[in-house]
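Structural prep section.
Before we set up the soaks we want a predicted structure of the protein with glutamic acid in place, mainly to decide which crystallisation condition to try first. Input record follows.
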Amino acid sequence: MAEQANPFESLQEQIDDASEYVDADADVLERLKRPERVLETNLSVEMDDGSVEVFKAFRSQFNGDRGPYKGGIRYHPGVNRDEVKALSGWMVYKCAVVGIPYGGGKGGIVIDPDDYSENELERITRSFAKELRPFIGVDRDVPAPDVNTGQREMNWIKDTYETLENTTAPGVITGKAIESGGSAGRVEATGRSTVITAREAFDYLGEEIDGASVAVQGYGNAGWIAAKLIDELGANVVAVSDSSGAIYRGDGFDPRDVKDHKNETGSVSGYHGADEELSNEDLLTLDVDLLVPAALENAIDGDLAKDVDADVIVEAANGPLTPEADDVLAESDTYVFPDILANAGGVTVSYFEWVQNRQRFYWSEERVNEELEGIITTAFDDLTDAYEENDLPNFRTAAYVVAIDRVLDSYEESGNWP
Ligand code: GLU
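Run finished without errors. Recording the tokens verbatim:
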């Protein structure tokens, strides 16, 4: 197997690709290619059997020109410094492309959460929250869920922070349960923006989403909700996968039924309604109208891209395509709608949650979804306008051109501070 791309180098290459079309000096752009700071910490936590285990954890604050650092915290054995740096950079450009007033950050713990009890996970999470406390804050850095974290972990972090600060500060973290100050619509938001982007993309390309065949790689929060919502638009979800493997059904699945099966058995594999079981690689190279990578970075590299047969790719995961894959797909006229637009629904509804927390006034789910629809469709139009006006090679570069311009505008307005 080819060596995995380093996501931080991928991010820097994406910025370089866009730099050609941005009116700024090289030294100013250089600043946008690396994080302002990275916290690396080792958490010593007591296990249920009385032993002590040490977990490496990171928080990268990439750029705060447009507002507080913002971005999730993931729990995964593959977490490493460069991955977290890349993910924090992608957050900067994601927030800028949808025009919400945040910079970018990201954190992670090197851990396989399946190996630990709930009590152990609570102690590990609270230990990380204690380390994060001086770095985060409602106006400083606002974490959120990411891979393998959700409302439970966010509630623990909020509670640890509030206890240590002797205050109430629900806006210090987003993605909380409704009862802990979360927002309606937050859980569905990443899948929802993915589907809004797919709908707009098909419309832009003059294609019909109704009846389109769709493959979804990953059946976590983003992938399963995207499958459900695209099915509701009349598309045919013919293949889905998770880390256990992929399943295929020519007539299309009922995504809710597949989700029930996954809830019962722990994976999509073995689903009774499937025609065939496939590998993840088979799924990514299916001849479909739309492919939605909704798992991890580097799902499609330059080699695999040569076998991709989808007409359109909409990225629900962060960084699922390497820069080499982008080049191959541009050659083969596969349209890629990038992560920093398509999955921006999560952070956009996090923004709504933060606004509601600040106002202590909560919105209906209808209002949340309506505001989200407005933000994503406006960002889609900004991106396609930039694509056409500058005759750009692909939509990812268009998204970076829009986003970098916005970050540079706020940097320039701020003047110089040594
Ligand atoms: N982890 C999500 C992302 O990658 C959400 C971040 C947030 O809500 O701050 O966009």
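Observations: The pocket of glutamic acid is lined by residues 70-72, 144, 146, 174-175, 318, 343, 346-347, 350 (CB under 6 Å).
Flagged for discussion at group meeting.
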